[in-house]
Amino acid sequence: MPSLQSVISCLSDYDPTALPVDQANRIIGEVVEPVLGVEQVPIRSALDRVLAEDIVSPIDVPAHDNSAMDGYAFRGEALAAAQTDTVELEVIGTAFAGGAGELAPTAVQAVRIMTGAVMPAGCDTVVPQEFVEALADGARIRFAADCVRTGDNRRLRGEDLARGQAALQAGRVVQPADLGLLASLGVAEVRVRRRLRVAFFSTGDELRSIGEPLDAGCVYDSNRYTLHGMLRRMNVELLDMGVVRDDPDALEAAFRTACETADAVITSGGVSVGEADYTKQIMARLGDVTFWKIAMRPGRPMAFGRINSNGRDALLFGLPGNPVAVMVTFYHFVRAALHRLMGASVPPLPLLRVRSAQAIRKKPGRTEYQRGILARAADGQWEVRITGQQGSGVLRSMSEANCFIVLGHEHDSVRAGDPVEVMLFDGLV
Ligand code: AMP
Ligand code: MG
To answer: Is the CB–ligand 1 distance for residue 206 below 6 Å?
Structure first.
């Protein structure tokens, strides 16, 4: 992996005390490289894992032309040949799904066919049964010539996937539909990247863990819980190291253990500029770490780099302490970095343009992630409003919100009714 210093030294306008969000993400992207380990797993276990290989279809899916409806299969030429506006055909048998399709009707014959059954030889069209009148003798059917066109209601061999076509690409995070797709190809096992191990802990002498008495001036540690939730959703192995006291020996031991066992280490608290605790000193001592003030709100201070201990190294994200800032910096920096580290290619989340229900004050020169509630307004349009208190310590704002209102670096204040961009929380999982 390239060193942080070498990446940073190539930037002409680098200012660690007012670093734009995009530039921070570019630096992180250049420093992080995927882990190499690969394992072979049964397809069910591949859910939420990262494919390490392209999956090329070994067969045509479907393997035969087949019917998309319950109805009657026939040769489309019968439609053009009809003398009147109805078509009459002789029924010579029934094709069930799973049969090999031995029937071969002539141009004046049809085969009763079930959905998924192989199209009889020479047939290219299916008339759905609801358009068909069975004649009294039971062996003939009649239907209007204009109720189907040649080729209707037939699924073509290979239309889902042709043999030799790439069904899924390396880097894909396997979704439920992909499990089905793999099964439809008869693929039993796939090669996936090994899971990441991510260690995390909270720092700060004011923090108490659940179950401990809340002494005067103390708060319960909530960051480890939001981190747990966000990391679980990314399907990584977790190493929750608890709260680490603001004590140089305890901190150093925690950083070393984390670094020796995990691919990435995430801490919260103690990285503010002017912070008097030891967290920053120890991070800097253990590796190639830089301390940023990012031009964003919430979330300003953040440490990023790589730390080493006894020949092992790990990526380090030192997130701010404020609970909302932890979530915002996780989603907007750590998430993409972990995707890269796990070898996943995940497209950027969409930003949707919707109307702001209210005025929002904003200064150009920083990116803001306001917590928003997107809902349909009385006039039927989608509209977003902010969730009351936007302080970076107000975790309730994240619980109430269903989206970020993303106000870009250059964005000025918003007037009620102006369009703004939102990023839905649903896409973040
Ligand atoms: P810091 O970044 O360490 O200056 O912390 C900023 C604010 O976040 C302070 O009010 C801390 O008490 C609070 N804070 C830090 N870590 C946590 C945590 N793990 N859980 C809840 N609040 C925290
Ligand atoms: Mg602190």
So the answer is: yes
Contacts 24+ apart (CB under 8 A), 422-425: 422/351, 422/352, 422/354, 422/372, 422/374, 422/384, 423/349, 423/350, 423/351, 423/352, 424/349, 424/350, 424/352, 424/374, 425/401
Of all protein residues, the one whose alpha carbon is nearest to atom 16 of ligand 1 is 321
Positions of the chain with pLDDT under 50:
none
pTM, 2 dp: 0.90
All domains of the chain in start order, with CATH: 4-36+195-341 (3.40.980.10), 39-60+159-193 (3.90.105.10), 66-155 (2.170.190.11), 352-424 (2.40.340.10)
Query: Between the CA atoms of 293, 207, 209 and 298, what dihedral angle is there, to the nearest 10 degrees?
Result: -30
**Can you give the pLDDT at residue 1?**
77
pLDDT of residue 102: 86
**Overall size of the chain counted in residues:** 429
Phi, psi of 220 (to 5 degrees): -75, 145
Minimum-distance ligand 1 atom for the alpha carbon of 269: 3
* Model pLDDT, residue 138: 81
pLDDT, residue 353, reads: 98
**Token pair in block for residue 221:** 């540690």
Q: Is the CB of 321 under 6 A from ligand 1?
A: yes
Does 202 contact ligand 1 (Cβ within 6 A)? yes
CA of 268 to the centre of ligand 1 (A): 7
Condensed to tens digits (0 to 9), the pLDDT of residues 245-264 reads: 989 999 999 999 999 999 99
DSSP string of 312-363? EEEEEEEE-SSHHHHHHHIIIIIHHHHHHHTT---PPPP-EEEEESS-B---
